[in-house]
Amino acid sequence: MQPLPVIPTPKKTPYTPLNTKNTPTDKPTTQSSDDTNEYIQMQPLLSVYGDIEQAGSKPTPTKAGAKAPTGLLERFLHTLDERYRLRTLILVWGPRLEFVVRLMLVATFLDDSLRTAVHFPSHMKQVGADGCLKWLVSSSPALVGVIATIVLGVGLLAQSLGSYGLLALRHCDLATKALIGWTIVQPVLYMQYSNIEFVTESISLVGGLLLLRAHLCAEPQTQLIGRLLLPTMYLYYAGSFLFSAFTYDETNSVGAYMASLSIFVVTGLVLLALVIGCMLVATGLKSRLVALLLALFNLGYVCYQHPFFLFVWWSGGEWKYDESKMEMPNVALADGMLIADFDNAQIYDLHKYYFFLGLSTSGGLLLLVQFGPGAVAVQKNEVLLPVVTRAQD
Predict the structure, then answer these.
(1) What is the pTM of this model?
(2) What is the pLDDT of residues 352-370, one digit of tens each?
(3) Residues whose CB is less than 8 angstroms from the CB of residue 354 and which lie 6 or more positions away in sequence, other chains included
(4) Which of 142, 212, 251, 320 is the most buried (most CB within 10 A)?
């Protein structure tokens, strides 16, 4: 028998620690999920779903201990994430939140289209005899009816189909154009261009639609215009606060004087906060945080000023209205019309309309929170939520 051949034992190579800093490799190394507990990842809010200024880029991890969160909000969210995994919540609920924000933005269009369809003859009168076509009533009343019917029909289709397109993400280009066009035309049709509050809220709503269009239609140049238009409504609020601060009645009572003085101080602080917030949003400095605060402020304001859900209840087979709380909102009245000419149902509809209009403007501000200020901004890479990436337990 011949002896079996001896198989040489392969030489053992010395262990080298994994360090690819100065060692070239053929393939890029990817960090496993087991090592993620050594990294702190700072990423913009919901950037996974498409920040325009960071499209196609991925957040760069930073080693733990290299730079700790410095801001108060960052430290708070850093601690919160260590307990409740904010990153997982954002990844899971991000698409749902994005849909909710889009629903808030188109809420006023859905409500207005439903109101127009239900009260179509009344809207024909508001556009025709009481609106922009009243100069034709004396000469061609039939023509006024035809024009009003066509205009309102186009507006009804623009609002309903445009809202559906933005919610279903279908034909977003045409949907945003239709809603922006109707928002611009509506104050003229209803002769509300002298109603400064309504006009400024419409301008802010156009800004929110432009932000959404910049995201859905990949038009980052419109994001700057939308960001500049968003704070228009708050500039009007600031002017209203300034006017009210100087219109207090003079009194000889010391207590009433001190009360008026305290109200003046509070009003001045609110005025200053609104002006600074508008400037920060327009310039793109801390715009996400400021837009979030303004959106919350606006939601609280519309719930306080136009709580239509508290003004009506069903009793005895009919709707009952709370006349003591349901005051007439600020609207521009046609020539010869008085506030007494409005019944409770019309005043209720006005409050409901202004509520959903405020809800839509808050949705526009939340779009700025979600998508960021854009490339033309002082702080285009603002981080709102610091997220700690950890290994699975």
Answers:
(1) 0.73
(2) 998 999 899 999 999 888 8
(3) 302, 305, 306, 329
(4) 212
